[in-house]
Amino acid sequence: YKGKMEGNHISGGWEIPGNCSGKYQLRLDAPRWTGAFWQNNQPTQMVLDMAVTPQGVSGYGSDEVGCFTIAGETHGNMVNFIKQYWGAHAVHYSGQWHGQQIEGEWKIPGNCGGHFKLHY
Questions:
Q1: SS3 track for 50-94
Q2: Structure confidence by residue, pLDDT tens digits, 17-74
Q3: How many angstroms separate the Cα of 47 from the Cα of each of 36, 63, 70, 84, 116?
Q4: CB count in 10 Å sphere of residue 99
Q5: Which of 11, 15, 44, 45 could be disulfide-bonded to 21 (CB atoms 3.0-4.6 Å)?
Q6: What angle do CA 42, 96, 47 make, to 5 degrees?
Q7: Rounded to whole angstroms, how far apart are CA atoms 48 and 62?
Q8: Which residues have C-beta within 8 Å of that of residue 74, sequence separation ≥ 6?
Q9: How far, in Å, CA of 112 to CA of 22, rounded?
Q10: Which is nearest to 58 in space by CA: 89, 27, 35?
Q11: Cα 41 to the chain's mean position, in Å?
């Protein structure tokens, strides 16, 4: 899969080499979350379209590091998800979900971590 993200749409093409190919278009109908993560006491702003339900967490977004997808789970008001940067590293998030706000800690295993806060 290769494509681009514009607002809450992702579109592009897919290919099974030597077999077939096609186009795709995805749209996530989820709230727009904004917030930041802090690294070395410096905030980095995030904007993401993310669904948080008792069944789990899914979404995508971007920040100054790049574009990413979100996938995770909820356990009551606990939220755990992984932010996977396209073609790069993954960041693990764990926090408390209180209605329209999530706050907690993030980490890149074996590297670094910090605090985050999101709301819609």
A1: EEEECCEEEEEEEECCEEEEEEEEEECCEEEEEEEECCCCEEEEE
A2: 999 999 999 876 789 999 999 999 999 999 999 999 999 999 988 899 998 999 999 9
A3: 8, 7, 12, 14, 13
A4: 9
A5: 15
A6: 50
A7: 6
A8: 52, 53, 54, 55, 56, 57, 80, 97
A9: 39
A10: 27
A11: 21
User: Which among 49, 47, 40, 35 is positioned nearest to 95, based on CA atoms?
Assistant: 35
77-81 contacts, C-beta under 8 A, 24 or more apart: 79/52, 79/104, 81/57
Structure tokens at 113: 């971590």
Q: What is the pLDDT of residue 60?
A: 87
22, 60, 69, 78, 92 from 8: Cα distances, Å:
21, 8, 12, 25, 23
pLDDT digits (tens, 9 = 90+) for 44-59: 999 999 999 999 999 9
Nearest to 37 by CA among 3, 10, 68, 6: 68
Please tell me the predicted confidence (pLDDT) of residue 28: 67
Q: Give me the amino acid identity at 67.
A: C
Distance CA 116, CA 45 (A): 10
Block residue for tokens 């998030």: 93
